[in-house]
Amino acid sequence: MPFDETEDMLQYLFPSPLGWSISNTPSMGLDNMPHPLLNSNRNIADAEGVPADNSSPQALVQLDALIEDATASYKSQIRQKGITCSFFDTCLSLFFSQFYPSFPIIHEPTWAMKNTSPFVLLNMVAIGSLFIGSADAVSQGELLWEVAYVAASTRWHHVYEHSSGELISKCQIVTCAALGQLYAMLSKSARLRQVSQTVHSWPFSWARRLGMFEVEEYRLQDLPDVSDPLQTKLEKWKTWAALECRRRAVHGLFIIDAHLARYSGGFPVGKHVLNPLPLTAVDAIFEARTVDDWITQMRQHWTQQPSFRNVYLSIFGDGPLKMPVDSLFSIFVLLEGLQAVITESNLASGQGVGLPSKKQIQRALIRTRNALQNGLDPGVDTLEIYLRWHALCLDHIIDTSRLQRELCRHRDFPQNIFTSGMDTWKNTDHLRSWTKSTEGRKALLHGIAIQDIAQRLSIGRAYGAGTLAAVLAAGTIYCTFCTVDQHDVAVPRCVNWNLVADWDDDYAHGDNSLQVRECRAFFQGKLLPSGCRRLNLRLSLYQLQTTLRTMSAQWGIAEEMRQVLLHWTSLGLGS
């Protein structure tokens, strides 16, 4: 257990109230948050013992007094909510066992609480609380997230002056921001989601300011020998892990950036395709549990990784694509980079200086899938990777966040999932013809594939940041078809996704295979051969609601997504 007593825990979280010094940290949008520093009824002009004619010291002492009050207030709330050291211990354990595999920006084997800032620790506990499975635990976690949010906005200077090493300091600042934004972005609370969108650009600003984009490679000649003293080996391992986590923390920002842009209806902050940082280390190295195993894996698998920028050049290029597939985290970073490009293309209506064309994006998606199929180990759990790929293809065909907003507006149903985009449709009359078009039918196939994969995901695991939105996107496509009275559909039994992605009227001319015949009939709106797959999209919408209810046990925003689908189905879609 990290703390023996609850008071020890509080002392760690609030080590020195008067040390909450003001720094030049950018504002984090504190107006959106109710917290004691801003809402205190205390009159700062009444602070005792402060000369009235010395305004600067007076302001600092008065602020220290307010901060001391804030500290006492948060300590009281933590006690009232029953947040104990045992709760901390449980949440940290759940963070590593449930959440960590889906967002590995902290190195568990070398992690130590004594080297972890209170802000990072609070975010870890807040995320771990989501897996306890009770409303009280979620409420407790949200309070701890708020403490981290408020304290971090005013205490960076004090905490990181006292941390153990510059490299760890820089990494933990960005790690705190990444974990905090992810928690808020997927929260059930619209208030927290608004905060994450308000401070969308802040973590990237800090990462640049702290030099986190400066590439620093580990040199293999620094690798210790298995026969070296244990302490020497451990120090070398920790040095490597610090460099690796520094890189992963920034990559985590890119993942969150792509999703926040969609939720906020704006452009991504980071330029994903120009990311100069190398891909992350292969999973076998990062997941080594002992220092000797790490040394062995390094000798077997260590290679100089290409930069993300060069991989994107290859994806959008004409030559053979050799995409590294030995790090699942890097794959998700690459996929979210494609999401950022698609978002920019959708907001620019497919045209803009420096933007790839719709055809180029389509080709990049095909090349990416082929590289994944040819390179991934069959034993690797790839369900979420392919679910994300289908969601990208779906969003490339039609901006599903915009479509969802318009369907809700058309049915006079308020939603707080996606904020207003740059433009809106005057009406949805065009959707009837769209559902009968080749593009509409492609979208339906991708929606069905997303549902098929989502229903196979393990229950109780931490779902990736993009999984929830992908399920809602599939439901949005179903609703669109149901709205124009297309409830019962027949689709090909076996789908060749290269064929679907690159289909046009002249594609595969002369090919009379079963796959091509079924696709051609489906895209042309003709009857499919006997034995095709038949679906009732109304029933499928109910099944997606069940999927989102399961996901909402961890990420509260899934419940709001489920409510949107519930509203659509309750209206009796179509006739």
TrEMBL record:
Single annotated GO MF: RNA polymerase II cis-regulatory region sequence-specific DNA binding
GO biological process: DNA-templated transcription
Keyword Metal-binding among record annotations: yes
Domain Xylanolytic transcriptional activator regulatory: 92-298
Subcellular location, record wording: Nucleus
Assigned keywords, A-Z: Metal-binding, Nucleus, Repeat, Zinc, Zinc-finger
UniProt keyword Nucleotidyltransferase, yes or no: no
GO cellular component terms given for this protein: chromatin; nucleus
PANTHER family with a match to the protein in the record: C2H2 TYPE ZINC FINGER DOMAIN PROTEIN (AFU_ORTHOLOGUE AFUA_1G02360) (PTHR40626:SF14), MIP31509P (PTHR40626)
Record's protein name: Xylanolytic transcriptional activator regulatory domain-containing protein
Species this chain originates from: Exophiala oligosperma
